[in-house]
Amino acid sequence: MILSIGPQHPSTHGVLRLEVITDGELVKDVVPHLGYLHRCFEKHAESLPFNQIIPYVDRMDYLAAMNSEHAFAMGVERMLGISDDIPPRVEYIRVLVAEMNRIASHFIALGTYGLDIGAFTPFLWMMRDREHILRMLEWTCGARMLYNYVWIGGLFYDLPVGFEERALEFARYLKPKLIETQQILIENKIFVQRTANVGVLPLPLAINYGISGPMLRGSGLKYDLRRIDGYSVYPELEFDVPIGQGEMGTLGDCWDRTWVRLAECFESVRIIEQCLARLTTDLKRTPSFDPQALVPKKIRPAAMDYYVRAENPKGELGFFFRTDGRSDTPVRCKARACSFVNLSVLPELSRGVMLADLIAIMGSIDVVMGEVDR
User: Fold this and answer.
1) How far apart are alpha carbons 235 and 230 in whole angstroms?
2) Residue 363, number of CB atoms within 10 A of its CB
3) Letter string b/e over residues 217-241, b meaning 16 or more CB atoms within 10 A of that residue's CB
């Protein structure tokens, strides 16, 4: 029998349609149907100046807009040759807000995943704590989710007065909450039974499919672009790269992927605290500091092909630029969306599982359809 799950279904995490071929309760094959949220990002970018593309970058992975902006701005700065001139305070603020956004994105992944397989309370907890992050990011730029805060060459504005102190309070508040989440969700007996040994993604298969982010690390490979590429100020910061261990079941199963996301939240809190320590000591705000000092009036890179990548909450987000040296708009702006690539392995993970396990596997991938469809 052919079942359609979605495109209006809570467990598809957006407007995704899964055409499922079943034999009773067993899944024989899955065909994802995309395109319900297609907004022509790449074609649209060809008619806009580089700085005006950033609001549309926000709308790809709308749960991690700061991370996406950071990757895009970094790529254009490298093409312009100004990346080494960005003030350290600007870079530390970028990493600070990006890591806050990483936690907010993982909270959506963890909370909705709990909902998918029957745990209601963790979702409410995640939304409560995510709201603190959204309010703080709104304080920086006036927007709750789509920020346009990281500009090419700098920032829209310096951090508001008192932001550092409030962020430090939040970091202290969040640590015990993460431990509570681990106890009520990740180590919950029912959750373990629903996710351990389900949707096992072997490491060779993950590599062949180009999987990245927590899905790849859940399969046991310590591969994080913040460490591998060492972009921005990440080489100056101390943090671990959590990987799946197969503790509760098989290495690379749904439980491992979920555990990696929670473990990354602990590491992001560590990064936030280190950024705040630098921003309140040797990189203090001064009246002369202008976060827009290096923002170019006209952005016109030399003719080149350039690819930039960064570690987004869901994996490797990359932008390929082609410029002609004459125009202030890109000839081509191709986005390498991690959600799109990660979703491509769903049929491999789902063949032969129970229909209820398909929902568990889908939730463990953590896709955002705005980024899949672009």
Assistant:
1) 5
2) 25
3) bbbbbebbbbeeeebbbbeebebeb
Helix 254-279, helix 88-116: angle, nearest 10: 150
Specify if 11 maps to a domain.
no
Six token digits for residue 256: 């491992």
Does residue 20 belong to any structural domain of this protein? no
Which CATH number covers residue 150? 1.10.645.10
Residue 44: inside a domain, yes or no?
A: yes
3-state secondary structure of 288: coil
Our separate counts of H helices and E strands in the chain read 15, 8
Instruction: Give the C-alpha separation, 306 to 75, whole Å.
Output: 8
Choose among 93, 109, 105, 172: nearest CA to 134: 105
Q: What is the pLDDT along the chain (374 residues), one digit of tens a residue?
A: 999 987 888 777 888 899 999 999 999 999 999 988 898 999 999 999 999 999 999 999 899 999 999 999 999 999 999 888 888 999 999 999 999 999 999 999 999 999 888 888 999 999 999 999 999 999 998 889 999 999 998 899 889 998 999 999 999 999 999 999 999 999 999 999 999 989 899 999 999 999 999 999 999 899 999 999 988 899 999 999 999 888 888 888 999 999 999 999 999 999 999 999 999 888 888 888 888 888 888 889 899 999 999 999 999 999 999 999 888 899 999 999 999 999 999 999 999 899 989 999 998 998 999 899 88
Nearest-angstrom CA–CA distance, 327 and 248:
55
- Compute the distance between CA of residue 18 and CA of residue 16 in angstroms, rounded to an integer: 7
Structure letter (DSSP) for residue 114: H
Please list the alpha-helical segments (H only) found in the chain: 41-45, 50-58, 65-80, 88-116, 121-141, 163-181, 189-195, 203-208, 214-218, 225-228, 254-279, 338-343, 346-350, 355-365, 369-373
Q: Torsion-angle region of residue 244: left (phi > 0), alpha (psi -120 to 50) or beta?
A: beta
Tokens of 12: 């598809």
Domain count, the chain: 1
Within a domain: 333:
yes
Query: Residue 325 belongs to what domain range?
Result: 36-373
**Segment holding 30, helix H or strand E:** strand 26-33
